[in-house]
Amino acid sequence: MKVFGFAGYSGSGKTTLIEQLIPHFVLEGLTVSLIKHAHAGFDIDRPGKDSFRLREAGCTEVLLTSNNRWVLMHELRGREEPSLDQQIAALSPCDLVLVEGFKASPIPKLEVHRPSHDRPLMYPDNPHVVAVATDVPMELPLPRLDLNDVEAIAGFILRHQGFR
């Protein structure tokens, strides 16, 4: 499985870009999975549902399954968050794992940068950034990709990961 990441400050458009890129990768015949890091607590379950009640009762893992999908919820219950490598190992085999977040992880990544957000570029302090996608022209020592040209960004990632 090849792994490629996306880094950028909150609100820079990482999720929107990834959402637009996935169909390009699927059209190339790739199976794609995603790991998204959430900084705050989150829950995909709702109070009152059986799975929520059983998890709240103390289960470490609850697996929900149907004829359309399955999901495994794992409660850390005070244990350390798994590393990115451990999370990747838990995925079913695929061609490409996209990773949103995990800025410091040693995987190649695209920095999504919007100067209008008045935040500094990450690449000078992050040796794993291989290109910057931005919505304004700028001179960079790395490849600069137009944030609005999803096809060009997809092509860059496919070439970088050796699919083209």
Brief overview:
The chain contains 4 helices and 8 strands, in the order βαβαββαββββα. By secondary structure, the chain is α/β, with parallel strands linked by helices.
List the main descriptive attributes of the protein structure presented here.
Rossmann fold; 8 strands; 24% helix; 164 residues; two-stranded antiparallel sheet; alpha/beta; single chain; 6-stranded parallel sheet; 24% strand
Overview of this structure, please?
- There is one protein chain.
- The longest helix has 14 residues, at 14-27.
- The chain is built from 4 helices and 8 strands, in the order E-H-E-H-E-E-H-E-E-E-E-H.
- The protein has a single domain (2-40, 80-160), classed as Rossmann fold (3-Layer(aba) Sandwich), CATH 3.40.50.
- It has a 6-stranded parallel β-sheet with strand order 2-5-1-6-7-8, with helices on one face. A two-stranded antiparallel sheet has the order 3-4.
- It has helices at 14-27, 50-56, 84-90, 150-160, and strands at 2-7, 32-36, 61-65, 70-74, 96-100, 109-113, 129-134, 144-146.
- By secondary structure, the chain is α/β, with parallel strands linked by helices.
Please mark out the parts with pLDDT under 50 across 5 or more consecutive residues, or reply none: none
Q: Largest sheet, described in full? A: 6 strands, parallel
What structural class should be given to the helix and strand makeup? Answer: alpha/beta
- End-to-end separation in angstroms reads 15 Å
**Which radius of gyration do the C-alpha atoms yield?**
18 Å
> What proportion of the residues form beta strands (DSSP E)?
15-25%
User: Helix and strand succession?
Assistant: EHEHEEHEEEEH
Number of structural units classed as domains? 1
Give the integer mean of the pLDDT values. 92
Under CATH, the topology can be stated as: Rossmann fold
Strand order of the largest sheet: 2-5-1-6-7-8
- Give the CATH class: Alpha Beta
Q: Look at the structure and name the CATH superfamily.
A: P-loop containing nucleotide triphosphate hydrolases
CATH architecture tag: 3-Layer(aba) Sandwich
Task: Tell me roughly what share of residues is in helical segments.
Answer: 10-25%
Number of strands: 8
The backbone outline, from C-alpha atoms, is globular
Q: How many separate helices? A: 4
